[in-house]
Design goal:
17 helices, 3 domains, 511 residues, Hypothetical Protein Pfu-838710-001, alpha+beta
Length: 511
């Protein structure tokens, strides 16, 4: 079973590379640090694994098998933010553990992992303690010897200082330690990890210092491809989180698929739909698979909240038990099912197709033109479709036809919001206002849709209860509450729609 830890650390090196190994200054002068206790020297031997073309390294992911020290085993490190990584541990074994292989799959796409670098380090470890003897941080002086295992046998070596925050400690301590270390003549390491430095310094060909210019810079293609790339990156980044069952990761991955699909539709004059429609269909498939449990979970949470708010005399019959039975019957997903989905050839092919499309986008003539014009056109198109549905809903009497129109309007509000998100770096303030207006409208329509689906579920539960000879009083009572809520949402709609219309005028290129 893999063990997951959140790692917050910073690495330092000497300001003058010719000055010799950096020395650790007195850190007890830092506020809150009462003692710096030596913990001896540990000899560490780690072999790092990657694909032949270093796909993990390109994503700042490291996978190693390490012996020595206090945490021997397999370690997979996944980036979260700057200085923060999730470290997943697995016991020592001859081959890469299957759990860790799975967590790298969105990056490797099934390519074989091979040993690429061996790092042998002598680690002088120091514990920083507060006045109560509680561990604040671990500081180590690491003398590293790196040996390349592919593309030759080049070696290199260096000494660095690593500061790792203890679990549940205040990250502000790292800033205070940073000031002390810089004052002592140290600087933040140029490399994000030991592996990155080893790969750079043992590369058979020095990496080029310059990056080629973006051929789409200043054109309509630039913001569209940037937004699409961000959604592809989100899918890759969230893949391990979904496999690990991280809170809200499934929902966020589903949103990324929707954003990508929406981009294809909104900016169809930039990207040729004859080349993107198949990919849009695959993204819709993935969103559907990820959402197997989502709707039932939302409804269960909403009804659980309703039942919890009712006075005890109004809970007539086994309503909570019946709700649990209903929810369990609709729980089609599981960690195993999601893992099978993310290991499927179809899913990995989808990621490959996104990569290929971003690398060689199917651009239409409008893609080479002014980005603001493409954004205005896309926003007007999405807004007009949304307006038609809102007006249709206003014309309909309360009932299923209005509910359907409002549900469709919610989808179009999302599309308008995503089109505005893609325009954020191009149009700035107007895009921000449009995003806010569309989101407020989307949220209101979402509450209305949840109320509608809750009422359908209550009718289903009431029917089951009646068939079993139970009272349906509680379900009818809550149904009435939801009807009242829906009427309230509809009463708020004209003002929300007016605000959204006003907020999107600049995005649409109108006044």
């Amino acid at each position: 079973m893999a063990d997951i830890q959140r790692e917050i650390e910073r690495k330092y090196e000497a300001t003058d590379p010719d000055a010799g190994a950096p020395a650790l200054p007195d850190l007890t002068t830092v506020r809150g640090v009462h003692a710096a206790v030596p913990r001896g020297t540990h000899d560490l031997d780690a072999v790092y694994y990657d694909t032949a073309d270093q796909r993990l390294a390109r994503h700042a992911v490291t996978l190693r098998r390490r012996t020595g020290g206090t945490d021997a085993g397999w370690h997979l490190k996944l980036p979260v933010t700057e200085d923060v990584r999730d470290e997943i541990h697995a016991p020592l074994s001859p081959a890469v553990p299957r759990t860790l292989l799975a967590l790298t799959r969105s990056r490797t796409r099934g390519a074989r992992l091979v040993p690429v670098v061996r790092l042998r380090s002598a680690r002088d470890l120091v514990h920083l303690l507060d006045a109560d003897g509680t561990l604040l941080a671990e500081v180590s002086v690491d003398t590293v010897r790196a040996e390349r295992l592919t593309d030759g046998d080049a070696t290199t070596g260096w000494t660095e200082i690593e500061v790792e925050l203890a679990p549940d400690r205040d990250p502000a301590l790292l800033d205070a330690l940073d000031k002390r270390l810089r004052k002592a003549g140290l600087r933040r390491s140029a490399s994000a990890s030991k592996l990155a430095r080893a790969l750079a310094e043992t590369a058979p060909h020095p990496p080029t210092a310059t990056t080629p210019p973006d051929p789409h810079r200043g054109t309509a293609a630039e913001p569209v491809l940037a937004y699409l790339t961000a959604q592809r990156d989100a899918l890759v980044l969230l893949d391990p989180a979904v496999r690990l069952g991280t809170h809200d990761s499934v929902h966020r991955m589903r949103v990324a698929t929707r954003r990508a699909r929406s981009t294809f539709r909104s900016y169809s004059r930039v990207l040729d739909r004859t080349a993107t429609d198949h990919l849009a269909a695959e993204l819709k498939w993935l969103a559907g698979e990820l959402g197997v449990d989502r709707d039932a979970e939302v409804l269960t949470e909403r009804l659980t909240g309703h039942f919890a708010e009712l006075p005890r005399p109004h809970l007539v019959g086994p309503v909570r038990t019946r709700l649990r039975t209903w929810a369990n019957a609709r729980r089609g997903g599981s960690r195993r099912r999601l893992a099978a989905l993310l290991n499927s050839r179809r899913y990995l092919a989808l990621l490959d197709s996104l990569d290929a499309l971003i690398a060689r986008p199917p651009l239409r003539p409008a893609a080479a033109k002014d980005p603001a014009k493409a954004i205005h056109r896309a926003a007007r198109k999405d807004f007009d479709r949304l307006a038609d549905l809102i007006e249709e809903a206003f014309r309909q009497p309360a009932g299923p036809a209005r509910d359907h129109a409002l549900h469709e309007a919610r989808k179009k509000a999302k599309r308008l919001r995503y089109a505005a998100e893609a325009a954020l770096h191009t149009l700035g303030g107007p895009a921000k206002r449009a995003i806010r207006g569309a989101k407020d409208l989307q949220d209101l329509l979402g509450e209305h849709q949840d109320s509608y689906m809750t009422r359908l579920t209550l009718r289903e539960l009431a029917g089951q209860a009646h068939a079993a000879g139970e009272s349906s009083f509680t379900y009818g009572l809550v149904y009435g509450h939801e009807e009242s809520r829906a009427a309230g949402y509809e009463a708020e709609l004209p003002a929300a729609w007016e605000a959204a219309e006003r907020a999107t005028r600049a995005l649409r290129g109108t006044r």
